[in-house]
Amino acid sequence: ITTKSPTVLPVIATVHVNQSTGHFPSPMIVHVQVSQGFLPVLGAKVTAIIETGHGSQETLALWDNGAGADTVKNDGIHSGYFRSYQENGRYSLKVLVQARNNTARLSMRSPQSCAMYVPGYVNHGEIVLNSPRPEVKDKEMEVKIEDFSRVTSGDSFIIPGVPSGPLPGKFPPAKITDLKAKSQADHILLSICFFPADHYKIRMSGNSMQLRDHFDKATQVNTSGLMPKEANFKETFEFKPETLKIQNGTKVYIAIQAVDNANLTSDISNIARARREYYPSFISYTINVATIIVAVVGAAAIIHIF
Questions:
Q1: Which residues have C-beta within 8 Å of that of residue 109, sequence separation ≥ 6?
Q2: CATH architecture classification, 11-159
Q3: Multiple choice CATH, 169-306, 2.60.40.1180, 1.10.10.60, 3.30.390.30, 2.60.40.10
Q4: pLDDT tens digits, 18-56
């Protein structure tokens, strides 16, 4: 790896897997950390090339989007599941990292603190508000860097127990773990990173336990308008609960399953919750207070007269 200036640190890619010995048919998790110094590099395209002892190769796209095998979005660590086992023995890894058309960025953001923000406190019976939490946009904490290309050889792993004959049928789609939901008027807006699948099953319930233990008996959501544009990227899907009346304070629990063209179904996703919150507008509140004041003053005047 070379750089144009001796004062500029090189962009490096570090490869590792979650374990040195796997177990068929469980997937291996491949991680590639792209960094410059101690800072993560974002916007690169990362592809792992996995080779068997006999020279057969498989390519695997790795993502830094916080979904699937990737734990945290935009931390410079690209991850992916590898399941395409062909034989017993050792598998070696080689990684291609590319940044083209000024897509690479250096993240200056420090790891987020796990401390909870406290909006205020009580002092001698009075509520004292703290300063608002500062909001920093991601783009303000990112610096563009030059295009680059890296090829890195890295970790290896051993897979035993692969059948010598024809391999078993396809694996089901991966479990969706980043489903989020929020209520908007009488609709529910879902945010999700879709995995490759033929179609999706979305069900909802007012009881999270029912959704977890009896998913197929929960209320089905019409997904005819659900057409993901591209896998492994976050998209939104909005629907109106037809059989569930949304009122102030109503909680709705939603989960999703991915189904492939062989009718294999993923595990039930994480359960997301949407809650309808309604607050009266300031104008109507002001009118009501003014009306009350006039009524009280009028009543006092009448009492004074008599």
A1: 136, 138, 141, 142
A2: Sandwich (2.60)
A3: 2.60.40.10
A4: 999 998 888 899 999 999 988 999 999 999 999 998 889
